[in-house]
Every structure is written in C-alpha cells, then in structure tokens.
Amino acid sequence: MLRTHTCGELRLSDANKHVTLAGWVQRTRDKGSVLWIDLRDRYGITQLIFEEGKSPAELVAKGRTLGREFVVQVEGVVTERLSKNDKIATGDIELKVTAITVLNAAKLPPFTIEDDTDGGDELRMKYRYLDLRRNPVRESLQLRHKMAQQTRTYLDAQNFIEVETPVLIKSTPEGARDFVVPSRVHHGEFYALPQSPQTFKQLLMVSGFDRYYQIVKCFRDEDLRADRQPEFTQIDCEMAFITQEDILNMFEGLVRHLFKNVKGIELPSVPRMKYDEAMQRYGSDKPDTRFGMEFVEITELTKGKNFPVFESAELVVGINATGCSEYTRKQIDELTEFVKRPQVGAKGLVYVQYRTDGTIKSSVDKFYTPEELGAWTAKFNAKPGDLLLIMAGETFTTRKQLNELRLLMGDKLGLRDKQKFSALWVMDFPLLEWNEEAKRYHAMHHPFTSPKPEDIKLLDTAPGDVRANAYDMVINGTEVGGGSIRIHDRATQQMMFSHLGFSEEEAKKQFGFLMEAFEFGAPPHGGIAFGFDRLCSIFGGADSIRDFIAFPKNNAGRDVMIDTPSTISDEQLKELALITKK
Amino acid sequence: MLRTHTCGELRLSDANKHVTLAGWVQRTRDKGSVLWIDLRDRYGITQLIFEEGKSPAELVAKGRTLGREFVVQVEGVVTERLSKNDKIATGDIELKVTAITVLNAAKLPPFTIEDDTDGGDELRMKYRYLDLRRNPVRESLQLRHKMAQQTRTYLDAQNFIEVETPVLIKSTPEGARDFVVPSRVHHGEFYALPQSPQTFKQLLMVSGFDRYYQIVKCFRDEDLRADRQPEFTQIDCEMAFITQEDILNMFEGLVRHLFKNVKGIELPSVPRMKYDEAMQRYGSDKPDTRFGMEFVEITELTKGKNFPVFESAELVVGINATGCSEYTRKQIDELTEFVKRPQVGAKGLVYVQYRTDGTIKSSVDKFYTPEELGAWTAKFNAKPGDLLLIMAGETFTTRKQLNELRLLMGDKLGLRDKQKFSALWVMDFPLLEWNEEAKRYHAMHHPFTSPKPEDIKLLDTAPGDVRANAYDMVINGTEVGGGSIRIHDRATQQMMFSHLGFSEEEAKKQFGFLMEAFEFGAPPHGGIAFGFDRLCSIFGGADSIRDFIAFPKNNAGRDVMIDTPSTISDEQLKELALITKK
Fold first, then answer.
1. Cβ contacts (< 8 Å) between B573 and chain A: which residues?
2. Which of A250, B188, B488, B552 would bridge B522 by S-S if both were Cys, CB 3.0 to 4.6 A apart?
3. Helix or strand (DSSP H, E) at A236
4. Domain Aminoacyl-transfer RNA synthetases class-II family profile spans what residues (chains A, B) (predicted)?
C-alpha cells in the first residue's frame, strides 16, 4: 500500500505516530510562516502542516508547488492541532509533513471540487469522473451500495436465490420499444435487450426455484422524459405458491428493512388502499401521503343554483388549504394560472376563503348564499383561516387536475419534507387501459397479470371494469415498485392475449415458450419489481435519479463523457450485413 | 402461502402435525393397497401415502390420477414411516394425505426430471425450464448464488464499493468484436455492449472511489468455441494507491475465502510463479499444479550422438510418467498418435522405459548406450517402473506440445481429481504479443497494462521482451482471473497506444476521455477480473460452464428456448434507419 492510513482515520490517540497518507490536494492555505494543505481521499480529509523554519526549506517550497487535485503521498508525524475543527472526524490532529512525493500532477479542474460546485450540468457530465469526486455525488453512490447490500441481506435471509437472466433476448412488440442488437452470425436477425426479466423469472418459477431475485439492468428505448434513463436498474423478485397477501407482507418487510438499516428509520406498517379509493381521495394512483389535504366531494351541495360550471359538472371536488384564507388576490390568481397551464389543463378554479374573522368570501358569491357556502366549509371541516380550492368537470380528469393542485399546495405549505417518508400499497388496479390512439385495450401492467377471478366474466362486457391482482408500492407520491399475481395456466394466458389483440400466431411467435411452459406444471406465482435508481434517490432525499447513477446518460440518451452513441467502422457494418440510411 | 411447510422440512419431531405442502409429483408407486407419491420442491422431497380402506376412496382415486410433474397442494398428517429412507432429510416421515388439490396439470415432460436424465443436450436446452428442475442443475445455480454472496461478503468487508457501470457504451476496435446497438434517436450511430468495464473502473479510481467491485455481465461477439458464451459474468475489481503485492494478497484472500465459505476447504497460501518459469516447468501459462510431472530438459545430454531429431533441436524436454514403464507398444503408439494430431502438431515422441526389472528400453536405443540413457533417467529422478516421454524442437512450440501430453498423462493417471484444488499466481507476463496476421504487436492483456519500469527501455529494441505488471490466477490449470497494474499517466499511455499502432487521432477518438482524465490527478491503481461462470464451474467440479448459467446460449449463440436471435418488424428497422442485406 502507498499509505499506512486513510485520510479519514487518524485521531488524537494516534499522536506522535509516523504515518504515510495518499490522496488529493483539496485546498491550500498559505500564511507565509505556515502552510496548510487539506489532503482528501474517499474516507475523509486530513490537514497537513508545513512550518517555515521548522520544516526543511525545500519541503516547504515543494508544498507550495502543489496545485488543487494533485495526487500526493506524504509522510509525517501525527500532531495535536492548536485550533481544532469539530466539523471533521480528523479535526483534532494535523500531520507535520516530513516527506512528500507527487504521484501525479493535475491540471486545474474545469469546475471546483466542492459540495456546491460552480460547474454547470453539461460540464459536470462531460467530466463526470471529476464530478464523482464531490462529496454529495460520492455519498449518493455509497448510499446506493448500501441499499443493494441490505436488499440482498434481507432477501438472502428469506431464502431467495439470486439468478442472472440473459441480456441478449428476443424483441417483443408489447410495451415500450426495445433496443436491438444485430447478429453477426445470423444476418437479418437481432437480439433485444430486456425491458425486464419478466418471462424468465416466470420460467424460473415453473422450474421450481420458488423464490428468485436479481438486481438487474433493464433497457427501454423511449423518448426520454426528464430524469429517465435508457438503462436502469430493477430489484426484480418472484415467488411461487403464494397469495397476494404473502407478497405484500414480504416486500413491505423489504422496504421497512431498508429504512431501518440504511436510514435508521422505523417505518410503520404500510397501509393499503384500493386504486379506486386512491383516485377518489387523492386523484392519483400514487398519492403523496406525507400530508392529508384529501379530496372532499361537494357535487350534491352545488346543484340547482344556476352556476353553469357546477351545474354541468359530473364532479365538484376540492381541497382544504388550511391556514391560507388570507391569500391575496395575486396568490389565488397564480393558483388559477397553474391549473390552467396546458400540463394541468383545467378551465378554472373556484375558491372559498373562510376568513380568520369568520366571514366567508368566494369567487362564486353571486350564486351561493353565505349559508350555502357554510355548508361547504362544514363538509370540508374547515376552520376560520382555511382556504377551499374547488374544481369541477368530468370525474377522472377533474381528479387528476386537482391532484396537481394538491401537490403544489403541499409544496407551498412545506408538507413534503424530503426527510419524511410515507409508504403506501395501492392495490386492485384495473387490468386493462384504453389506448385512444390504437383504439384498443392495453394491459395496464403487462399481459401476464392475472385478473381477479370474480371479474373475469366482465372481460367481454365491460373490459375496463376488470380489476387485476396488481399492486404498487408508493413512497412519498412516487411509484417505487409494482407487481402482480401472474396467470399460470395456458388457457387464461391465451384468453388474455386474444383480449389484448394478439392473433394466435403472434402470441405463439412471441410467447409460445411461456405458454408451452405453463403446460408442464406451472405453480401459482407472483412478484414485484422495484425501480432501484428511483428508490435510492428517494432514500437520498433527492429529486433526480442522476446522481445515484455513476455514469448516467443525458436527456438525449447520450453519454457526453465517452461520446456515445457514435459511428462504427464500415467493416463492422459489413460484418453485420447492415446499411444505415442517413 | 399455499403451504405451511416445504417438502424438505418435516422431521420425526413434527409427527401428528396437520400440515399443508405444495410441489411437483416426482414419482408414484402403486402397490394396490397402498399408493405412495414423492412430492418435490426446491427444498426436498416428502413422501405422501394413500391407503386403500383407510383413506377415503375418492382421495385414493384422485391420487391415482396424478401424473408426473403435476403441481399439487396436499393436506395431511405427519406420520412416522415404517421403512425409513436415510438418503433424504425427510426420510423418517411420510404424510398421510387428507385432502388434495391439483394446482396445475402437466403434460408428460419430453425427458425425465431425474439426476441422470434421458434427455439429449438439444432437447434439454429447448426445455431449459424443465432441465432446471433437475437437482444437479439447480444445485449448480445455488452454488453460483452462494459464490456471489460470499464474494460480496468478502469485498464489502474490505471496504470495496459496488458501482454499476453502463451497458450502453462505445465501440472500440481493440480486442474482440463488440456487439452493437443501433440508436433510434441518432441515426447511423451505435452504442456497444461492454467487453469489460475496464475504462469505467479506471475512471472510478480517478474519481477517488479507492476500491471498486462489480459482479457484471460482459459481452463478446466472437465465433463461439465450445463452452464460450456471448454474454458472461465477471467479478470486476479495482484498487487505488496500491502495489502489485497488495492486489495479489487481497484477491488470494478472496479465493481462499470462497473455498472456505462455499466448499469448506482451507486452501493453502497461493504460490507465485513467473510466466517464464511456468513455461519452462509446465509448458503453459496456466499450469495444472494438482500434480507434478514437471518438465525435465536434457538437451545437453542428447547432443553429439547423431540422432538427427535431437541434433537439430533447440530443446529436448520430457516428463516422467511414473509407474508407466510397462505400457504396451499399443499404449505408447496411442500417445504418439495423440501428439501428432493437428491440434497438438508434434512430429513424434521418444520414450524411455525404465523397466521394473531395472533394464532400460527406448525408441532411440540405436543412438544412445544404456549408460547414456541411464544419465537421462538420473536427470529425471526416474525409478524402475517409470516411463520417460520426450519431445524435441523449437523451444516455445515443443513446450506447448509437451504440455498437452502432460495433461493427458495426468488424466490417465487420475491426477486431476475435480474435487482437489490447486491455485497459483502466474506473474510477469510479456506486455506484448506478436500477431502474425496483422504483422504487429498486440497488447497481451489490454492497452492499459503498465510495463515494468525497468523494461520500458526495451520497448523500441526488443518489444517482445518487455514484461508487464500483470498476473493471472490459475486454478487446476484454468485461468480464472487476470489483471494488472495500470498505466496512470497520459505520457506513458500515449506511448503505449503508439507502440500498439494507434494513430494519435484514433487513440484520441477511442480513449481521449481516459487520457484526459489522467491529466486531472489520476492515482496509481490496478485491478483484476475473475471469470465468474468458469470460477463457479471449477468450484462445482464441472467441465462445462453451461449448467452454472440459468439460460445459456448454444454454440451458435442462439437461445433455442425463446428462439433468438430472430427477425424484427419492418417498422422497427425503419425507426432505426437500417436496411439488412440478406
């Protein structure tokens, strides 16, 4: 080793030891008679000291030549500091340097290697290896490591076997777009990269593996929205001989284990909510339950008073923004503008101010008497000081819009603390989802999800009403995982494929192996997959997943550090029998 | 759960318990008055019993309808067996069945689900999910899981951080062929799948991650030799601020930890051997050290006696096949045929039989006196009963050929026991390797390997003599891992690229980001990668890696179960702006 200790290791109890350290020059302070250098490695920072008169002159001179981010090896004697620094673990000591070796010089980095850097996004991505030196980024990846460790600890203890499934698989038209890999040996044929190991983990259940998991890279060639990556990581799990209840308990256990062992937080047991209820109470299938502000429906109370908007509305529904009654006209106008943005798409917003003096003022005073408005405030359990924000229209759309407003108000009222965590199971999702563009139903999760047995009879008459044995784990308003009980018999699977518009031939070509497997003794089974990047970012209290991925791609799917995708040689194209159209 | 216990769990102490099991019908024995069924799951086998007269008639009848591999749930009472089976953990008990539910019927499997199956390779690959039900295959994958677990346990304890590196990277012409992935967004551009995370792990060292590891999928689009897979898994590691000595100690520690914790074997400390010495003593850079039979050079003893073959030979070298002096003429002819096969390519074989009666007989009696041959046997330390097998010719070639013969004799003499393990470090490899086809030197490991500082001066005059700071871990004659101390400064790296025939422009296009990174403070670093599939197969005592991979591809790179690679839709090709030539 080029060192006897790390830069985070030395304490007062090491005083007078002769040690060797190695690391990067973080910072130099030159007071003329004394030169201090902060030496940094992954483990911490140790202060080096050179003293004019006491240290050999050449040594001090050499210390002065060291620039930021130089890599050096230093020998010296551990000494108690005069002015201690209680912000760092090594703050009681410094190293009186006796020898120094420059292991590698460094050009001035294009941005400062500090917690708050002056580097913009693009520059930091291009020099990602320098960005990774910054504490917050390194700590995010250390958190990720710990999350993976603890995930494995939990699942190993529960008798899960980690099995690697293949990366070079087969393209399937269902779901998102596949990345494909041309075969050099079989011209005109392609492998595809997996969007998930779904069919393989089901086959492992058919094989009797009983409990499978994998922390695995998956791939999706989609137009990237902000904070989406073409390659992403899942905690992928499957169990056999279980009911939905067993899966919910097992993976609630995982999430609680992670909170306890990674964050030191005892998460209470995870409540469960049906999809229909989540939509009704929060207008979202992934409600942020860190705060209340639940939807209150007042449709009946608003009818017959000639207010055209409410009169024609299928649903009139609102939230109570407690303590906001004294919002100014400007503030309320901003909320109205927010819901009218195309991303939200509402036509307008009705407000009722239950003033601190007990009076009620609203934007619909013309249509409703103070008594009628009083009935509203009563239904909302509002108190003087509260502000009701009300929207109206078609049920599903209005709920979605009010959900956006609720989240905005949660932000404004400081109710979405990133260091507070609230988890929720959302269950009983619809099996099918109408696709307006394709004019047919798609599987909401995927075509292997089992319908609730009692709903199968609705498949022909009311497909949209069929519920699935499917569940999502939601934390702080983000879906971090989802899964289902699978179909495990050929007849049901074949029926599902036909309902999803697969011809028999297509189904056989794409999933023939799975349907055949179901005929050789497939056990009842189900599973779940967690989005590992997102889960890490939530544990890290961050909005973006990017700093929880060592080498992420930008929003155009490009790695600007290594500059890929890029052209390949004509020889490579020829071997693959491919022609590219420009 | 659809069960209260697994099929491997019940013991005599559970007698009289009412339990529920679920699993597959392994086997049925029907004695008329009694029906036994072996029920199997991942955890073991439990015997079910139905008794005519005692059990309800419908139940017995139902039991009789169950075919092989049916999936059933059974309830029953745990009972002591009359005739116990000490071969299985549950052999003291059986389950008196009180109720049975068929969870899924099964067609007759295309081969028997037994330890020794009647299924051929191709059939087993097509129905891999059935093959995976067989004990030996499932146990191989359980071993792999344990290997991964223990690898992580060791490296985590040594402060390594597991970091995921990207799968969609950039194609580089050096090394084997890349698989490429066409970009839909950037037409005419491609990602490539990594042959290893080499450059990324080096960048992580530049970032100060200090100790990195990853158990990671890698990809190589090569013409598949037997037992090679297009996708394979590495234990990939890198350390900063270390010397070669530190790496050897750290990863010898890993291998010994694995032997201890996976196999219960205390491996002695791993000996080290220089490449030159390995070639001289064994004719191989990956000698099988489970047995001796080392090379003995007798060039000097053979000269001046007018035997043309030895007279013209650069090297005369042999092995002592102890106890083989009484080999028949036919046996010796077979050995001669073996070395003359094109795969070995020798011109012939000289033998000296040191007969049990003390006489010496050889194929070169015409040229050498018994006294002269006696000097040979003395040099070989041969005893009556031994057989010397001697080859001659150009040094490197002759050693390679004799190595093949040595391994064959090791097999014949039972010296290559798959349950015995012998590990070895081979060190000081040549840096460069002459490529006859390209008429230039290639990097023997990869272009980032550092030359030994004292040899750098030879780079211009005798490139083939330059040694590298490179090392391989060899177990039982198989290279299971290899690594090197890396170049960590731009000047040396640039010089290496130029010696390897990269133009400055090419080097910049392919590895500009790495060379630039070396200018921003790169620490001294080095690492190693283990072939995980191969390591598992050696621990499992198997010749092939195939059963240590859940879903392997065949020798044509095809997954015959899911039938990939396969064609993709015209729409997909259009989106990728690709035309395939047929």
1. none
2. B488
3. strand A231-240
4. 141-565
